[in-house]
């Protein structure tokens, strides 16, 4: 039996995550219970995709300090661990938003680079002085997909950053109302701490939310303002987050361009 190309398994995982997420969000819109089986299938697909990428970029897991150090700061490992956490935890529908966003872009790119070319024959060589024939329908579709992905990538990553902050707010409220594990807000907060140092989109989102809260608490009384100032001070000291101080530069030149949270393709 021939071996299956890991790239196709990677795409299958993202396809499962995307399709299951759409179904889960549709159920949420109709106020129906979370389809637990679909939820776990979706995150199983995400875990498969991330595992393939991690194995390709970092190699087989090793109990060595260099490998562990690389894995600790690798964004694909971080999202794989997050996907595993959501897989074993009580379902939270909103948690699928970041993964569904990544999977949308990956599925579109896979469609453009791997599926469409199999159905589009190579164009005949252009004759001297003759205009190039118009592209076939599928070829034109592939170009439109490429343009859409490039023009919407930054917007999508900003959406992911805000979605992750919304997820943090959701699990905090859930923990306070005893509907979510007390571990959930701690875990998600640590994850966002990692993302803050790795992703300019997360830093931008944290700054924007902090500014909005500053405006909201202004004039609400000294006690409220002092409480919010204490929260910002604790966040700054705990996570190194410059809350309310404007976007901070990345740790190295060009880090922002390489810090997109979407998993890299194998």
TrEMBL record:
Annotated localization: Membrane
Biased composition (Low complexity): 251-266
Lipid bilayer topology: Multi-pass membrane protein
Entry GO CC: endoplasmic reticulum; membrane
UniProt-listed GO biological process terms: endoplasmic reticulum tubular network organization; membrane organization
Family matches, as InterPro entries: PER33/POM33_regulator, TMEM33/Pom33
Name this protein carries in UniProt: Endoplasmic reticulum protein
Source organism (scientific name): Tremella mesenterica (Jelly fungus)
């Amino acid at each position: 039996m021939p071996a299956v190309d890991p790239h196709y398994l990677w795409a299958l995982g993202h396809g499962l995550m995307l399709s299951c997420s759409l179904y889960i969000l549709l159920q949420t819109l109709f106020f129906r219970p979370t389809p637990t089986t679909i939820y776990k299938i979706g995150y199983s697909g995400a875990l498969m995709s991330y595992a393939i990428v991690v194995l390709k970029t970092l190699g087989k897991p090793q109990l060595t300090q260099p490998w562990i150090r690389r894995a600790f700061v690798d964004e694909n490992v971080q999202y794989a661990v997050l996907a595993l956490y959501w897989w074993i935890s009580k379902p939270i529908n909103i948690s699928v938003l970041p993964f569904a966003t990544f999977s949308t872009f990956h599925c579109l790119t896979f469609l453009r680079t791997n599926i469409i070319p199999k159905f589009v024959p190579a164009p005949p060589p252009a004759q001297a002085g003759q205009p190039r024939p118009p592209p076939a329908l599928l070829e034109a579709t592939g170009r439109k997909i490429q343009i859409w992905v490039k023009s919407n990538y930054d917007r999508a990553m900003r959406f992911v950053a805000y979605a992750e902050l919304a997820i943090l707010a959701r699990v905090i409220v859930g923990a306070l109302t005893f509907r979510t594990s007390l571990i959930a807000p701690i875990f998600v907060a640590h994850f966002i701490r990692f993302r803050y140092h790795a992703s300019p989109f997360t830093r931008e989102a944290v700054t924007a939310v902090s500014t909005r809260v500053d405006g909201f608490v202004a004039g609400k009384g000294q006690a409220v303002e002092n409480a919010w100032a204490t929260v910002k001070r604790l966040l700054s000291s705990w996570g190194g987050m410059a809350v309310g101080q404007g976007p901070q530069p990345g740790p190295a030149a060009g880090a922002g361009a390489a810090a997109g949270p979407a998993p890299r393709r194998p």
